[in-house]
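Internal ticket - ligand job 449, iron/sulfur cluster:
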Amino acid sequence: MRIALVSPKGPLYRSRGGVFKKSLRYQPLTLTTLAALVPPELNPEFALYDEGTGDVPLDIDADIIGLTVLTGSAPRAYELADEYRRRGRTVVLGGPHVTLVPEEAQRHADAICVGYAEESWPQLLRDHAAGCLKPRYEQGADFALVNLPFARRELLDKRYYLTQAVFEATRACAHKCEFCVSPTAWGRKQFQKPIEHVVEDIKRVGRRRILFIDLNLISDVAYARALFAALIPLKVRWFGLSTSLIGRDPALMDLMAQSGCTGLLIGFESISSSGLGTIDKKFNDPALYAELIRDLHKRGITIQGCFVFGNDEDTLDTFDATAEFVIKTRIDLPRFAILTPFPATPLYKRLQAEGRITTRDWELYDGQHVVFRPRHMTAAQLLAGHERAWKEVYRWGPILSRMRHAGSQVPLSLAANIGYRFYAHHLHTHYTCDFPQVADQGERLCVSP
Ligand code: B12
Ligand code: SF4
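stdout (structure tokens):
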């Protein structure tokens, strides 16, 4: 069976005209995991296409074409899916957006996979081979991450990525932040791979610097402890994601450092407690942020700090105050996003009930556009303030100050900082400028500070 797997990208992330440089691009696991799950008895021949690294052809000659769909890439995925079907191909859609709004996706596919597809995708392919493809396949109620094959990383060209040494140990997260797709799409029970499987995967890939893409590695502390302990003998240096709650467990932080953690992505989201209350992320305590950052730095762990602008407590002062906090605390790699009501999430339902969603053009749901009416500012002010914060923290002064404390991590940290500086200065080229004020502010903000 000839199987093509496609990862379409929204304009910001596309190789042609996008602003995401190789220094920021690691190899995702979606397509390579799906390839590994194909039953061998189908004699698969694969073609994998990541639109983040190259163009996706329209004349793909395959027995079945699978596309992965994020909300921001949905219009592009549907455009491709419709074209492939027009050309007589069988098209399957899956991924977070399909899981959030299956009925919509169904209109563009011969079949969809809702939820995690470790069991449903092989079944779908067997049905297709037998000529009895069903329109919809679902993640089973007893879904578990067991008896897994290893991702077929070699099917994507490694030259296009900063690293291929990308792993996942768990899926989903126990928290319920209002804006996050994870609890809505996959529930709050964390799925966990057997630790021996994760260790074996890391050994097979054989790299010393590795990256975990798990949404929250410390969601289940007992599992986290066991995983970190198992990493110690591997002598790897790893980067992963955690919540700020790591700061309240010094023993786990020590174990994490001992296991080789050299970088953590943390969703700080806001420097205001009341702002965090409006997005149901009250477990974050801004009063403890500076101490957490110091504690991690002391242990040699750098921080990719993520903030989101646009909650109902944010005002025009929030942007500068947040940028100032980021610079002062020397968060190593700051990232800002605009609050985005992904469909079916509690945030989406609330804003919809309040009549505040201004567009359902999913292409703009990429975390860098304003798709709702903010409470204390205009959409244009939110967009412009967000862009200003990016540019402020990626001035050369703050970058150099961060580098002075980056120790042995300078080469990687510098490359990523320069990548994000480029991103900060090119973001505006992707604004559709629906708001006239933004065009004006955009001009002003284009001038290098
Ligand atoms: C790598 C990654 C990216 C990469 C590339 C993603 C891609 N596939 O193109 C980049 C950096 C481009 C990216 C960008 C963004 N991302 Co992202 N990303 C991830 C991340 C960390 C890992 C994806 C991965 O490899 N997962 C492992 C694989 C095995 O799981 P999976 O992709 O879910 O696939 C399984 C199922 O979903 C299903 N499946 C998926 N696709 C298909 C296709 C078919 C045919 C079938 C049958 C099944 C199937 O089968 C797989 C096995 O079960 C996930 C979080 C996570 N840990 O999953 C977030 C995630 C996908 N991203 C998310 C978000 C919010 C974003 C951004 C908005 C971030 C931002 N604020 O800027 C942007 C938006 C980009 C856009 N234009 O839409 C959300 C999803 C949002 C949504 N509603 O679509 C996630 C889930 C994170 C979260 N916190 O909730 N991201
Ligand atoms: S802690 Fe992170 S992954 Fe978990 S629900 Fe909140 S935003 Fe989502």
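Auto-summary: Residues 2-138 form a domain with the Rossmann fold fold (CATH 3.40.50.280). The first strand starts at residue 2 and ends at 7.
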